[in-house]
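User: quick one, sequence for these tokens?
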């Protein structure tokens, strides 16, 4: 998530809708797709009807004019005007104008990013995405002064101004903005950083996206894109899993210089920025953006790493036993269990299951989630050129979120859908806070998504009577939790090691691979065999590129939700209302304040152990099943 000090929202991290995949590509995708029913494609017309729609050009011109007008109206006046008796009212009006610009910029950036995510290889869409990004960056240069001047105002003067009721809503935004003050640079340097972002880290992000989308992996005589290839790692046929793993490794290896260059360049870019701003630790800028204390994250990481033997090591040993082996090759880590159901899950069944799970908890929550289906806010099919993975992009409060995923009928796909719809519900509820206050820091950004998964899992578990199916469902949930907690903390450890070592010079692809194998070996344990080729698997993780050090938010959210769900199971009436109030708050409150009504404190070291104990208890239940 971009810092609140920016009035310009970023496009989705993996981001003319008239331009779509060609007929041959669509036919090939349709033939290869699992039979899961008709899958929805999103309708971006709620933003703009096409990349060449006149409204796009109109709004880009309006953005240019509004940004220049804002600068003319307010630049150089902030300190003097806030000090006057009517300074609070004047500042409130300025912030409202700033927020309106943010909403317009968010609409443009979101449309360009979503169009690009839907088809990253179409030249016209790629050009549109790049051109819009450049226009927004150029326009927003006129806004940089606002946060810089505001942060130079004396604390006492700001506090006097904020006494007026019209600033109550924006108080958290102002207070968060002033936390950036120690890392703020001279105006022209800030402008340079801002302008250079288009040809700097943003360009390397785009290069990564286009490279990943363009890769092809030869499996069984077929040339596959990355998403269906990764999906084969969950195929029932061992030979297919192995072939997919080897194909991934071969293609990654052939492109290792490109990925190493992107990784080295972005790590150096971040180091330069951190050094100029005065951040002490390589992850401090992320912690600041998340509004979370470094010691809280350090405690989370220490707790998870200490739990590796009790979680992942223990589970994978049990999984190997289910396969009648002492250990599993890395490509079998997410293999379907021998006793798991073999049927694919129809899209309509996935929808029904999730909406019923949400509805049992809160009818309001289910009603919001249902709009994603009825109003075409979801893009679900696998298509050539489409971004891999999944996300829910909030766009802007004057519009609504959109969900992207690549649905192939696997049980994990159902959980992914439940996860992204949780994000979507959160984003819809928080939208009333406005463009500046709706965004949620990462400390709580994953809460609604993981909670949505938990509700769905619990419903599936309750309706599953067959013992083996129940065992498979429990195992699938444990694997998801391990992927969310253990794997993401291992990712965080990997990033820390790479960024730390990069300060002493460039890392070769081989060296990055060595670091990757070290942290993976530690986290996976002896029951997972690290075979040749796995040293390249760091190359496709988009979070390393788009959002350095983002990954710990998943573990934060999972452990938090485990604790939150325990409160829910033991709560009297009113929990759902308190929960929806928490989501509706958006970014108006610190995470510690939002958790108080539930009696939870993430700063307590025991908090993380409590969340991890939920995973341990599920593993113990599986062990008891034999």
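Assistant:
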């Amino acid at each position: 998530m971009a810092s609140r000090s920016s009035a310009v929202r970023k496009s989705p991290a993996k981001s003319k809708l008239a331009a779509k995949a060609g007929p041959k590509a669509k036919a090939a995708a349709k033939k290869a797709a699992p039979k899961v029913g008709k899958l929805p494609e999103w309708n971006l017309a709620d933003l703009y009807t096409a990349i060449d729609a006149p409204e796009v050009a109109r709004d880009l011109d309006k953005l240019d004019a509004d940004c220049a007008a804002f600068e003319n109206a307010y630049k150089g006046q902030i300190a003097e005007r806030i000090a006057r008796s009517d300074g609070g009212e004047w500042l409130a009006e300025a912030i409202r104008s700033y927020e309106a610009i943010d909403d317009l910029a968010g609409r443009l950036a979101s449309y360009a990013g979503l169009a690009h995510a839907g088809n990253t290889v179409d030249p016209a869409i790629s050009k549109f995405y790049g051109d819009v990004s450049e226009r927004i960056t150029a326009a927003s240069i006129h806004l940089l002064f606002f946060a810089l001047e505001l942060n130079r105002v004396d604390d006492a003067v700001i506090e006097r101004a904020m006494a007026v009721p019209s600033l109550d809503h924006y108080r958290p935004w102002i207070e968060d903005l002033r936390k950036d003050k120690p890392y703020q640079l001279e105006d022209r340097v800030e402008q340079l950083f801002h302008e250079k972002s288009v040809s700097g880290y943003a360009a390397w992000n785009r290069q990564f996206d286009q490279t990943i989308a363009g890769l092809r992996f030869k499996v069984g005589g077929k040339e596959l894109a990355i998403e269906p290839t990764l999906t084969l790692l969950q195929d029932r046929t061992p030979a297919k899993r192995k072939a997919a793993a080897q194909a991934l490794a071969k293609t990654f290896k052939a492109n290792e210089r490109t990925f190493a260059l992107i990784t080295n360049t972005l790590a150096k870019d971040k180091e330069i920025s951190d050094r100029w701003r005065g951040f002490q630790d390589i992850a401090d800028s992320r912690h600041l953006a998340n509004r979370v204390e470094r010691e809280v994250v350090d405690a989370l990481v220490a707790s998870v790493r200490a739990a590796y033997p009790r979680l992942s090591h223990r589970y994978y040993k049990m999984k190997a036993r289910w396969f009648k082996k002492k250990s599993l090759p890395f490509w079998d880590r997410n293999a379907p269990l021998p006793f798991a159901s073999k049927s694919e899950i129809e899209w309509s069944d996935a929808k029904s299951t999730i909406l019923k799970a949400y509805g049992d908890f809160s009818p309001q929550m289910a009603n919001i989630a249902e709009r994603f289906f009825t109003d075409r806010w979801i893009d679900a099919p696998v298509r050539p050129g489409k971004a891999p993975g999944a996300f829910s992009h909030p766009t802007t409060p004057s519009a609504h979120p959109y969900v992207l995923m690549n649905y192939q009928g696997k049980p994990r796909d159902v959980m992914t859908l439940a996860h992204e719809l949780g994000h979507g519900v959160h984003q819809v509820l928080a939208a009333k806070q406005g463009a500046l206050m709706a965004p949620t820091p990462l400390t709580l950004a994953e809460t609604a998504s993981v909670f949505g998964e938990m509700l769905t899992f619990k419903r599936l578990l309750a309706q599953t009577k067959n013992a083996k199916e129940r065992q498979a469902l429990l195992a699938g949930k444990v694997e998801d939790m391990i992927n969310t907690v253990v794997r993401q903390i291992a990712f965080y450890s990997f990033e820390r090691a790479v960024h730390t070592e990069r300060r002493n010079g460039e890392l070769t692809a081989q060296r990055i691979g060595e670091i990757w194998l070290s942290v993976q070996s530690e986290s996976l344990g002896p029951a997972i065999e690290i075979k040749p080729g796995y040293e390249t698997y760091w190359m496709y993780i988009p979070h390393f590129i788009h959002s350095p050090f983002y990954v710990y938010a998943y573990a934060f959210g999972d452990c938090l939700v485990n604790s939150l769900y325990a409160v829910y199971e033991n709560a009297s009436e009113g929990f759902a209302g308190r929960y929806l109030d928490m989501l509706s708050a958006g970014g108006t409150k610190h995470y510690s304040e939002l958790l108080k009504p539930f009696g939870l404190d993430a700063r307590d070291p025991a908090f993380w152990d409590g969340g991890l104990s939920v995973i341990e208890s599920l593993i113990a239940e599986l062990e008891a099943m034999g």
